[in-house]
Amino acid sequence: MVARSKLRRRRRTKIIATLGPSSSAPDVLARLFYAGADIFRLNFSHGTHEDHAARITAIRELEEKAGRPIGILADVQGPKLRVGRFGGGRVHLQTGQPFRLDLNPTPGNVQRVSLPHPEIIAAASIGATLLLDDGKLRLRVEHKRGDALETTVVVGGPLSDRKGVNVPDVVLPIPALTEKDRADLAFALDRGVEYVGLSFVQRPEDVAAARALTDGRAWIMTKLEKPQAVENLDAIVRLSDAVMVARGDLGVELPPEEVPLAQKRIVRLARQLGRPVVVATQMLESMISAPSPTRAEASDVATAVFDGADAVMLSAETAAGQFPFEAVNIMDRIVARVESDAGWQAHIDANRPDLERNSADAIAAAAVQVCHTVRADAIIAYTSSGSTALRIARLRPESPVLGLTPNLQTARRLALVWGVHAIVGPEVHSMSEATSRGTRVAHSHGFAESGREIVVAAGVPFGQPGTTNALRVAHVR
Description:
By secondary structure, the chain is an alpha/beta fold. The chain folds into three domains: 14-79 and 175-339, TIM Barrel, CATH 3.20.20; 90-166, Beta Barrel (M1 Pyruvate Kinase, Domain 3); 359-475, Pyruvate Kinase, Chain: A, domain 1 (3-Layer(aba) Sandwich), CATH 3.40.1380.20. It has helices spanning 26-35, 49-66, 118-123, 179-190, 204-214, 227-231, 233-239, 247-253, 259-273, 295-307, 316-319, 324-339, 342-350, 359-374, 387-394, 408-414, 431-444; strands at residues 14-19, 39-43, 71-75, 90-93, 98-102, 112-114, 129-132, 137-145, 148-155, 157-160, 165-166, 195-198, 219-224, 242-246, 277-280, 311-314, 379-382, 401-405, 420-424, 453-459, 468-475. It is elongated.
């Protein structure tokens, strides 16, 4: 990929757009990118490998034409739990009635239905809650046998074939990766995606197992959507390369009043640990069928930006909605408007995370402080693995961060990171060479004017990951 484009986002918070039937055509893909999408998400809960292969090819072709690195997130489905089928396709459960969930594959009726997940039956305890169809129906376990759960309908309603089951009270002895997920993961890794989304994580061991499978070929983005994951938050975030506040299933299994607090806690911890964090699900939900969002949705996006999230995500809005371009465009506008507000910058400055006691963090903090003191136009972060740019971005500097790297995959990964404009270029071998090239790149990409100053941060010797230890101020000529 030739680094020739002067395309520059006028905001720091990134945008992820999910691809699907509404957005897979190359011309639509290009419109979404130029409207503001920085990362494209492939949802492996839908579509075939052939569908996703075509989308990956289209993204890489767009990347080459645009001259800008574009990241790809392959989001695997995870162990989605569902009831079986009904004889008539659907039933209506009345509040207070008994209802049995069992291992019998016979089509169900108003008294019972198959639950083809013996692990749920084994793990559930008397009094446990089962949520059906995204929490619309609620059951309470009254008795259990080896092959069935006898429940009472606490909240009734219509229930149709293959609706989902959530078990908020129980840690299920199931892996986060199914056989389908493993096949999807192998497919995605073979095609060089930058991020793998790990669904329905409950324990740190789930992340460790995925890390062993990926073997460094992609960064793991852990989706936090189970109460058990929130309980193990610190250990899970430390094992992850990035995290997502997946508010869909999280909002089913947690009380609604707990979800905003969980979001803030996750974003705060991810920022402290230097892990990119994404806020996702129902951000502009009404735009699936409407050309503009509700005021509440605009406020929701703004809240994520004020919290300091690295990225906000569109799901069905761009994958299957009627207005995918408009959804990306208005999200770009909301984010840019929030970030132009003086109150936003003051809030971000007041909530910078604590520094770790090491030289790399000290250099990153010094770069941010020097940039502020001398009013430098930009910070140049030379980075092989991405760690230098991550450390600086974690502190949310006022000036843009140019992540210069010889590694295309690193540049694509940095497309997700707050405030980082990733650029692929040749390797440098000395601080003098880094400074000279940094000033030229900052000027040519429109980040610094002649006569102004930039700050350059790097690791010496060059090319060794995790060695951020050098800082210089340079004049742009």
